[in-house]
C-alpha cells in the first residue's frame, strides 16, 4: 500500500513538473513585431504531412489502427478514424485558440480562424505527433512538433517562421485515457506558449 501511494505521489509530481515546464519557441526567421497594434490575426491549420509515432505518415497509422479495430468489431475502426479527423475541428483547434486568446487579452490581440479581413495569418502546421497512451497503471504523454508561419493574409508573403518541438499533452493525475484528450492538451499548450512569446515581443 505504501509503495502504491509512493508511486502515485511520484507520478503526480512528475506530471506537475511537466505541466509547469516552460516550453520554448524557436524563432527561425523574420519578426513578429508587425502584429503590434493589430486587433485580430487569422489562423489556419495544416495537417497535410506529419508522422505519427513510429509511422512515417498519418495515413499509415490510421490504416493500421482502423484495421485492428475493425478486426475486433466490424465498423469500429471506421468510426475511430472519423473521430480522429473530427477531433481537429472539435477539440484541437478550439483549445489552441482558447489558450492563445486568453494569453493575449492584455495586448488586445485575438486569433479568429477563417477571418479574411485580418492583415496577418498564423499557419499552424503539425509536423509530428506522438499520441502517447494511458492504460491505468502506465501512461505516456502525447508529444507534438509544430511549425508556425506568420504570413500576410492576402499575398501569403512570409513574415516569420517559428518552431515548437516536443510540446507535451496530458492531464493532471493522468485522467486522459482518450488519445484525443492528450493531443488536445498539446494544442492548448502550443497556443499558450505562442501567446506568451508574443506577449514578450509586442509592446
Verbal overview:
There is one protein chain. The chain has 203 residues and is of the alpha/beta class. It has a single domain (2-57, 90-201), classed as Double Stranded RNA Binding Domain (2-Layer Sandwich), CATH 3.30.160. The protein is built from 4 helices and 9 strands. The strands form 2 sheets. Strands 1, 2, 3, 4, 5, 8 and 9 form a 7-stranded mixed beta sheet that branches. α2 (58-72) packs across α3 and α3 (76-103) packs parallel to α4 (179-201). Residues 1-21 have low confidence and may be disordered.
Classified by CATH, the class is Alpha Beta
User: Helical region count?
Assistant: 4
- The CATH topology: Double Stranded RNA Binding Domain
| Overall pLDDT | 88
Strand content: 25-35%
Q: What structural class is derived from the secondary structure elements? A: alpha/beta
- Domain module tally: 1
CATH architecture group name: 2-Layer Sandwich
Give the biggest beta sheet: 7 strands, mixed
Radius of gyration: 19 Å
The shape, in one word, is elongated
How much helicity do the residues have?
Answer: 40-55%
Alpha-carbon distance between the two ends:
54 Å
Amino acid at each position: 500500500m505504501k509503495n502504491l501511494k509512493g508511486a502515485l505521489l511520484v507520478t503526480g509530481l512528475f506530471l506537475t513538473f511537466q505541466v509547469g515546464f516552460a516550453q520554448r519557441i524557436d524563432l527561425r526567421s523574420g519578426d513578429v513585431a508587425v502584429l503590434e497594434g493589430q486587433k485580430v490575426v487569422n489562423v489556419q491549420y495544416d495537417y497535410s504531412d506529419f508522422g505519427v509515432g513510429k509511422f512515417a505518415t498519418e495515413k499509415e497509422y490510421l490504416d493500421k489502427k482502423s484495421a485492428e479495430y475493425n478486426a475486433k468489431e466490424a465498423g469500429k475502426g471506421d468510426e475511430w478514424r472519423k473521430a480522429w479527423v473530427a477531433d481537429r475541428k472539435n477539440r484541437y483547434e478550439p483549445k489552441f485558440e482558447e489558450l492563445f486568446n486568453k494569453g493575449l487579452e492584455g495586448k488586445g490581440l485575438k486569433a479568429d480562424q477563417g477571418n479574411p479581413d485580418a492583415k496577418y495569418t498564423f499557419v499552424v502546421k503539425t509536423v509530428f505527433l506522438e499520441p502517447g497512451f494511458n492504460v491505468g497503471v502506465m501512461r505516456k504523454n502525447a508529444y507534438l512538433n509544430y511549425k508556425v508561419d506568420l504570413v500576410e493574409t492576402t499575398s501569403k508573403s512570409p513574415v516569420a517562421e517559428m518552431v515548437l518541438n516536443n510540446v507535451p499533452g496530458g492531464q493532471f493525475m493522468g485522467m486522459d485515457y482518450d488519445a484525443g484528450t492528450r493531443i488536445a492538451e498539446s494544442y492548448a499548450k502550443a497556443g499558450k506558449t505562442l501567446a506568451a512569446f508574443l506577449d514578450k515581443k509586442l509592446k
